[in-house]
Amino acid sequence: MSEKITIIKGDGIGPEIMDATIRVLDHLDLGLTYDYQDAGLMALELHGELLPQATLDAIKSTGMCLKGPLTTPVGKGFSSINVALRRYFNLYANVRPVVTFEGTKSKYEDIDILTIRENTEGAYLSEGQTINEDRTVAESKIVVTREASVNIVRYAFDIAQKAGRKKVTAVHKANIMKTTSGLFLEVAQEIAKEYPEIEFNTLIVDNTCMQLVMNPGQFDVIVTTNLFGDIISDLCAGLVGGLGMAPGANIGNDVAMFEAVHGSAPDIAGKKIANPTALILAAAMMIEHLGYTVEAGRIRQAIKQTLLDKDRLTGDLGGTAHTAEFTDAVISRL
Ligand code: NAI
Ligand code: MG
Hints:
This protein has eleven helices and twelve strands. By secondary structure, the chain is of the alpha/beta class. It has two domains: 181 residues, Isopropylmalate Dehydrogenase (3-Layer(aba) Sandwich); 133 residues, Isopropylmalate Dehydrogenase (3-Layer(aba) Sandwich). It is globular. The structure holds 1,4-dihydronicotinamide adenine dinucleotide and magnesium ion (MG). 1,4-dihydronicotinamide adenine dinucleotide binds next to loops.
């Protein structure tokens, strides 16, 4: 079987961590082939637009994309490319696992939390964001639909069931956002009844943040709306050593796109010191999605062992190793 994957190297540290990730994938020799496409600042320079139609067509044809972080120019009238990609392909589920790896700066042991974030609506609509002429009143629109809520909650329970997880927590703010968050909560409570074997609870988002820091062991699967999922998944990354450790998948019915949770890290771009772990773990999620479960496990195991080697840690984890040194060490352990 030869799987073709669309690769978008991305901006900032994107090309550095993507090269590292491709080296790891190639070492597994799965017969994957790559179709390189542009998006983000790179595409703006080369093709005059942030998200060329050719890139969209390529992703549509392979159905599988591994993507580096993309910089969206701020305040220049551009809307987020990531949000555009998620909506274009209706990638309704954003799946963000975090696990503790020994050797990282994590203050906690045995964290294993899966955040399932609704990925197409909520507070992430580019339309409906307005500000008046004298810039004294700004408004933005939040939309929650029953359909998207059903899809995301069911996805969370199905994945929990498949992975043998025990508990799903629906995170909301229905006490204040009575209609939008209220609808999400109502749907979550309804769907939960279809899965009596999985423990279910609901939690208000601010309390969730406090609970995550005080007692993260109580969480297993978290399902929530778009903005809360964005914030909570970064918080979860912080529980396991930082953004360099957190992968994510954007799943739709026809297309799946895998990426790191972090952004293009302009402060360290070009220095070849970025931690490639998040994108390598995203690649592991991708090959698992393709059916290579054993090989995905090998990648995670190699990362786990490498992180125990202090001489191989990158700067964000308190070490001095470069991206390539870390990657060499991962490959040598595969
Ligand atoms: P960021 O995630 O790029 O950086 C936050 C901090 O974490 C920085 O100090 C950075 O150096 C560090 N960091 C992130 N990834 C790292 C890694 N792999 N190794 C070591 N250190 C790492 O977030 P920021 O600065 O808010 O955003 C920068 C740009 O990235 C923005 O243009 C934003 O729109 C974009 N972005 C793109 C995303 C995507 O493509 N999925 C997601 C988040 C942000
Ligand atoms: Mg984010």
